[in-house]
Amino acid sequence: MEDLTKLGLTVTELRFALDTFYFLISGALVMWMAAGFAMLEAGLVRSKNTTEILTKNVCLYSIACVMYLIVGYNIMYVDNGEGGWLPSFGALIGSQSEGADHALESDFFFQVVFVATAMSIVSGAVAERMKLWAFLTFSVFMTAVIYPVEGYWTWGGGFLSEAGFVDFAGSGIVHMAGAAAAISGVLLLGARKGKYGANGQVNPIPGSNLPMATLGMFILWMGWFGFNGGSQLLVSDAENASAVAKIFVNTNSAAAFGAISALIVCRLIWGKADLTMILNGALAGLVAITADPLSPSLVMAGVIGVVAGGLVVFSIVAFDRVKIDDPVGAISVHGVAGLLGLVLVPVSNNDASFVTQLYGAAVIFAWVFLASAAVWMALKVTIGIRVSEEEEYNGMDASDCGIDAYPEFVSVKSAN
Questions:
Q1: How far is the C-alpha of 138 from the C-alpha of 147, rounded, in Å?
Q2: 342 vs 352: CA distance, rounded Å
Q3: How far apart are CA 325 and CA 323, in angstroms?
């Protein structure tokens, strides 16, 4: 009997170690998504703004890690009442609970990289015309308070969780929230100079480095296995390990079907294969499946990808038609596809309802949009949020960073 007791303790410790290690590795994959966002955005902006957007991505990740450690995690998870709406405000991450499946620090690490992902979405949408310091100041509020509050309402056991709202890995909690913060800033910021003509025409502003943007998309695709797979939380028994395997396959399928769907839609509409739309089609599939990558069948996961990949093309075009300038398509990819993912959950998950999913989506969007708008407005009337016309024309690398991303680059014009 004593030997069996010792064996039981050993198995418990091994499971604790394995689940902790899985959490940490999943978090590292999600952290790698920061590189994906940086490369994607750097490739889709003009060369004169490349250093500045890379600076934003490095700094926003760092700010997210600092603010979520100091207050954000506490707001989201520590000493909060079940089913409530007002979190308890404290500092740091609390202490390890007895009988936990994994180390507390591994949970914090996994959660903090999700916060940085939400903030990265904002970066691309406001690119090429927002002041660097205004953006970084907003990052403090977004990662310290705005995101953690709605995170408490959902993953932290708050009133949306009690209502039955389902969002497995964050189609709404992370992605749509990031898009809500982005669109509130974009509406106050306005479009880039020359993007829209007086007669309503849309003037394309091509990115500077499509190989870099493509690399960014593949890095994000890879990181998403940690994003969705890690959200299963456990891997140390047959049931959870099998669930993780299915999540991986469904996540991969949604992205692949999304890319192909966007390719076909572009061919049907314009007769060409638009690489930027294909990249966003894959990402839209990933965002949509994130709401519930476990419940759908392998075929249904592909269907979700098809719908999201096609929808994102029309969404990007629609936002341009109403003159909402989003240089990288972030609002469509993360907002529209995020909402799509949430409303499709009940199709394959009997524990969710369309009404509850729409209710949760509305609450998250309203909170993040209004809270973000308040911060953006405060910044606009104090330090300002938009660079001058001259700074925008010359590029933000020169005004904000003083370093060119491509110092030896020269443009060669055709003689014809």
A1: 12
A2: 10
A3: 6
For the CA atoms of 83, 88, 91, 93, the dihedral, rounded to the nearest 10 degrees, stands at -20
Give the up-direction half-sphere exposure of residue 173: CA atoms within 13 A in the CB hemisphere. Answer: 27
- For 196, the 3-state DSSP assignment is strand
DSSP single-letter state for residue 142: I
Reduced DSSP (H G I as helix, E B as strand, rest coil) percent helix, strand, coil of the chain, to 5:
70, 0, 25
Q: How far apart are the first and last CA of the chain?
A: 90
Number of C-beta neighbours around residue 121 at 10 A:
26
Apex 168 CA angle, 163 and 172, nearest 5: 75
Token pair of 75, please?
């707001």
328 — phi, psi (to 5°)?
Answer: -115, 0
Report the distance separating Cα 284 and Cα 23, nearest Å.
25
Q: Per the structure block, which two tokens stand in for 414?
A: 């055709």
| Sequence letter at residue 382 | T
Look up the pTM and report it: 0.93
3-state secondary structure of 198: coil
- Exposed e or buried b per residue across 239-270, where buried means at least 16 C-beta atoms within 10 angstroms of its C-beta: ebeebbebbbebbbbbbbbbbbbbbbbbeeee
Indicate the range of 79-93, 321-335, 367-381 predicted with least confidence.
79-93
Instruction: Determine the Cα–Cα distance for residues 329 and 312; give it in Å rounded to an integer.
Output: 9
Q: Cβ distance 378 to 141 under 8 Å?
A: no
Give the integer Cα–Cα distance in Å for 340 and 238. 31
340-379 pLDDT tens trace: 999 999 999 999 999 999 999 999 999 999 999 999 999 9
Q: What's the pLDDT tens digit per position in 275-288?
A: 999 999 999 999 99
Q: How far is CA 292 from the centre of its chain?
A: 15
